Each structure stands twice: as structure tokens, then as C-alpha cells.
Amino acid sequence: MRTLLLPVALLLSVPAVPFQAQGVVGPAGSRLLDLDGDGALDILAFQADGTLAVRRNAGGRRFLEVSQELPRVSVTDVLCTDLDADGIPDLYLVSPGADVALRGEGGGVFREATAELGLLESGPGLAAERQDVDGDGLLDLVVHNQTSDVLFWAGADGRFERAGVTTDGVAPTATPPEIRTSLPGASAPGSDHGEAQPALTLGGAPLPSAAPAAPAGFVTASPQTSAPLVVGNLDARYVNDDTGEVGSADIVDGSLTGADVSTASGDVSFGGGATLTARRAAFGNTPSANGTYSAVLGGSSNTASGLRSTVSGGLENFATGIDSTVAGGGHNYATSNWATIPGGRYNIASGQYAFVAGSSSTASGQKASVPGGFRNTAAGNYSFAAGRRAKANHLGSFVWGDSANVDKPSAAADQFNVYAEGGARIFAVGQATPSLVVDAGGNVGVGTATPGFTLEVNGLAHRVDDASTWTVTSDARLKKNVHDIRGALATVLALRGVTFEYLDPSNPGLRRGFIAQEVERVLPEWVEDGADGYKRLTVNGFEALAVEALREQQQAIEAQARELAALRSEVERLSAERAGFTDSRAAAAR
Predict the structure, then answer these.
(1) Which of 281, 323, 390, 473 allows an S-S link to 385, with CB 3.0 to 4.6 Å?
(2) Residue-wise pLDDT tens digits, 381-399
(3) How far apart are CA 385 and CA 369, in angstroms?
(4) Angle (nearest 5°) at CA 460 between 454 and 464
(5) Quick one: how far is CA 293 from the chain centroid?
(6) How far apart are CA 327 and CA 329, in angstroms?
(7) Which of 407, 431, 434, 401 shows the shortest CA–CA distance to 419?
């Protein structure tokens, strides 16, 4: 049976203000939160009219606004948490009207998902927190309201189930949230968005789009993302040239003329030897190519503002650095000089000569590279990060991350890091067996693909200094229960040393050693059964055993020597006594 025990704690709370029913009005301000899960603090900004904005941390004390449609809501508390257990931060916005849940899509992008997550009927909220109320290992959602608390049970599928009654025993009442778009220029359901006109701009600013303006104010439509407009031809009405020349064609009254230019049916065609020369070019839906010699070649809402910058296509991409390039994708930012983003989504190349691909990744170091993957960071100069959540934070660091949904950071400059839950293997060219293996359990194999020990070597191990020992820590301050070895000589004598050869022809040659079954009868702690069923022998402390065996033998030899000396002394005494007795008898006879 689930018991409602609701501790009160405010997480990143905003002081409550009286809610004004006449409109969406609340406190203006911002909160520093890790909104994209990359470990850096981003900004969630909210205005008095309920408008929300996400500004992603681009490094170097810069924040870039993530263009998206968000609901308008008066905020009294912000809970940044992974509601749906997908590893991406979500937002739960507590409101005096009705709470709103925003599901994270990665890269600081959110969408309204209150009903989808089962979080309707929350009531007028003051604060929210996550607690494992029923002890099932899942964090439930506790909403503290003005009159009572509301509990949502967390499910393994990432959805929630509202408890049947509130903490005061009152049955819940439905209060669905009113979702209002935050972006100006949005249109109401069923309205005509209009068809954006293609534009070609030569040597000047792009001409304004012919699309009709959207109604002002709030709209009650669910947030939607517009698909980019693909332009198949160029309209001669949108051609301009400051120098009065487009290749071999002349401009007459705003129209293109010339032997190699055709404007039939309103389309522009270049044939023969005609050329097109311009200081700027802007193609697609609402392009902006305001950098000198910049170009936007297609897509929708793309901007090339840096000197000689290029955006080839995609949606809402920005190339603001000198010679910066974004080839496609969506919501990418090449903000530094010579930075390149070949595609993907929500990527930031903010370091000089930086390269970023994949999704939700950042290369802020000079000449840093992220060749692909998800939520990777190459922050150090000359660093490299790939995979999932790889963090190359140091100069010259290399981080290769596996699919595990955890950060995988570098720890020092010029460091090579491989995070691989399934292990790592290194082959030489032409090898069928890897030269080096690190398995999933952390065992290291040299010359074997299946190491069964912390270190297993298939072959000879050699120290270049020809030393025959390995260094171990042996400080008396680190030891306890120290006792002398007893019976060492008898133990050593009970062991049988043999010569042998292995049955495996890949291990030829005469060997010297012990038989594990024989050793087990004398020193069982030296022997263990391997996973393959064969017995393994670990000679542990043989040097100490041999020393004490020699000591015992020496003590026996010295005892025998003392006994022999005593016997010799006794013999000498008896011999002297006998010689004296003989001399006495001889004297008496004379």
C-alpha cells in the first residue's frame, strides 16, 4: 500500500507572486540550469508576459539563444529533472494557473508534453520536487499547491499516474494548462501561413519575404515546427546587383536581359557563357547573407554574417565567423573564424578552426574536433571527442565514448581516453588475434583475446633492465597480524619440482615448475579453479618461504655443528685422560 509522505523542499524556486487572471503575468527573471545535460550551466529566461527563452552555454562567457516555440506560462517554480528517464533534462514549470511539463529533445530544445507525460490536473502550484515516495526506485513528482499537495506516481515507461486523492482527501479537479506560443509571428490553427518567396540577393541585403504577417498576440495552438521550404527556381523580381551587371546580362528596369539569360515564365536561366558574380548571395526561405562575400545557398531561416561565411542549407543555421561554414542540418552555430559544421543538429563550433558534426555537441577549443555522436564536447585546444557524452576538456586530449549515458571526461592534458563498456582491442595489421585487449571486466590481455586475470600475457614478459623482480609496496606501516613462518623447511621439502612439456603444440619447450594438484595438498591457497575448469597456480610469497626454510636448515646445521663440537671436545678430553693414564703406568713400571 502506498502511503503519502510528502516532505516539503523547493528546488530552484522562484518567489511566488499573486496570479492575475486577466492574462499571463508573472515575475521576470532567469535561472541558471544545465538545460542540455552537457555539464555547463545554461539560461532559462522568462518575461513578465510569460514568454520563455532558452540560451545555451557556448563557452567563453557566451550564450546563444535556441530558436524554438515554447508555451507562455507564469512561473513560480522551475524543476529541471529527467521526467521521462531518457537521459535528457526536462522542465516542470510550476504555475499559479496550471503547471506545464516541457520534454527535452536535446541541445536545449523543449516541447510541451504535459498530457503526454500524464501530468494534467496538478492544480495551482507553488513548488515541485522529486521524491521516491513508494520506495520502488523511481522518483515520483510531488507538487505543493496553495491548499494541498498533489502526488504523481512515476512509471517505468517515463509517464506518471496521478494519485487518486490529494493529501487533504479531496478528489482532483481537472485543470488542463492553456498553452500559448512564445514566438511572435505564429499563426492560429487553420490560418494561412502564406508561401514564402524565393530570393536571390547580389551585392545587397536580402529583400523581405512576401509571406503575410502573422496575427499579433497570443495564439492557442500547440507548438509546431515549420518544415524548410525547398526552392526550385529563381524569380527575376528578386534579383538585384549594385554594379549593374550579372555576367553578360544587363539589368533593365529590374529585369534580366541578355543573349545567355532567359526569363521565360518568370524563371531565371543562365546558358551559354553567362556567369553570375556577386559579393553576397542569399537563397531559400528568409535567408540572411549580410557578411561580405557571404552566401546562403538554400534552406530556411539561415544566416551567414561572417566575412566569406557560407551556409549551404538546412534550418536556422548560423555562420558568423570569418570563413566559417555550416553545410546543413538544423540549429547549428559556427561562431568562430574558420569553424566548420558539416551538418547535424544543435551543434556549436566556437573555437578557431573547430569542427563539429553529430548532434548537441560543442567544439570550443582551437582546432578541436567532434566528428560525430551525441552531446560531445571538445573544449581543449587540439582536442578530440567522439561517441556519446565524450568530454575532451584538456589540451590535446582524446576521448572516445561508448553508448553509455554518462559523461566520459578527460583528466589531464595530452591524454588518450577510451571509454568502452564492452572492452577495447588493438590489432596489428594482418593479425587475427588482438595484440592488446581490455575486456569488460577490466582484465588486460597481451597476446590473448580472453584474459582471465587482471593481467594475462601469452608469451614471455621481459624487463629491459634485466631485473628479475617486480616492485611491490611492503611498508611495515601498512601491515598487521605479522607472524613468523613456521615449518617452512618441511613445507618446501613437501613440494616436488618437475620438468614437463605442455600438450598444446603452440607452447613448445621444456619447462620447470610444479603440478597444481600436488601443490594444492601442501599450499591450497596457491591453487584455484579457473573458469575453464583447469587448476591455476599462483606462487605467492615463495621467496619468504624459501628464506625461512633456509633459516630453519641453517639453524639445524648450526645445532649439529655445536653438538659435533661438543662431542669433539669430549673426545679430546677423553683422549688426553687416556694419554695421561698410559704415561702414569709406564712411569710406574720403570
Answers:
(1) 390
(2) 999 999 999 999 999 999 9
(3) 7
(4) 95
(5) 38
(6) 7
(7) 401
Contact 477, 464 (CB under 8 A): no
- Checking DSSP bridges between strand 348-349 and strand 362-363, what pairing results, if any? parallel
Residue 181 in contact with residue 71, Cβ under 8 Å?
yes
For residue 112, list its beta bridge partners.
102
In angstroms, the CA 156 to CA 164 distance is 19
Q: Tens of pLDDT along 385-441?
A: 999 999 999 999 999 999 999 999 999 999 999 999 888 888 887 878 788 888 888
The Cα 125–Cα 149 span in angstroms is 9
Residue with cell 583447469: 534
Whose grid coordinates read 516542470?
A: 92
Contact of 283 with 228, CB cutoff 8 Å? no
| Terminal Cα-to-Cα distance of the chain (whole angstroms) | 125
φ, ψ at 563 (rounded to 5°): -65, -40
Rounded to whole angstroms, how far apart are CA atoms 484 and 477? 17
Cell 631485473 found at: 467
Chain center to CA of 335:
23
C-beta neighbour count of 388 within 10 angstroms: 20
Q: Specify whether the CB–CB gap between 352 and 368 falls below 8 A.
A: no
Distance CA 167, CA 23 (A): 30
Helix, strand and coil content of the chain, in percent to the nearest 5, comes to: 15, 25, 60
Contact indicator for 481, 535 with CB cutoff of 8 Å: no
Any idea what DSSP says for residue 521?
H
Which of helix, strand or coil describes residue 89?
A: coil
The Cα angle at residue 566 between residues 560 and 567, in degrees rounded to 5: 90
Is this prediction's pTM over 0.90? no
- Do the beta carbons of residue 115 and residue 355 sit within 8 Å? no
d(CA 106, CA 346): 8
Determine the length of the chain. 590
